[in-house]
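Feature request, filed as a ticket because there's no other form

It would be nice if the structure record came with a short human-readable summary line next to the tokens. Right now we just get the raw output. Example of a typical job, pasted below so the devs can see what we mean:
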Amino acid sequence: MNKLRDAVLLCLWVFNKYIASVGTRTGRIFSQFLAEGQSDREFATLFRERFVKPRSEAVGVIFDRGVKRGEIDRSLDRELVLDLIYGPAILRLTAGHAPLDRHASEAVISALFAGLRDKTFKADHAKRRKTQAQGIVRKSR
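Raw output as currently delivered:
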């Protein structure tokens, strides 16, 4: 699991380093792209296809290998796990409330992998997937 964790951490660290922070030119442009996508659906689609999707797919390949090796439960929602990797970085960039440094990357990935190993999470997730497969919709509490 350490190789898998380290590979995902590297992808997040490269992403965080690339967008750096609100104060950098790249960070400001990235934030502007996110903002533009709120009012321009065509731009949002292009941004997802050309920027977000390639980065998500890089980690997706790592995720798929982890599933194949039995390191990740195959019943987990792949897209959700990928969102959990990049979501905190995007929030920190746009809100500007916390750093996008190596320590932050390590904290996010440590929390994610602790959750992926958590038997309660796996059981709850499997139960939810089974309920959805049966066509039963549960309301949020």
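Something like this underneath would help us a lot:
The helical segments are 2-19, 25-39, 41-68, 78-95, 102-117, 119-133.
Residues 41-68 form the longest helix (28 residues).
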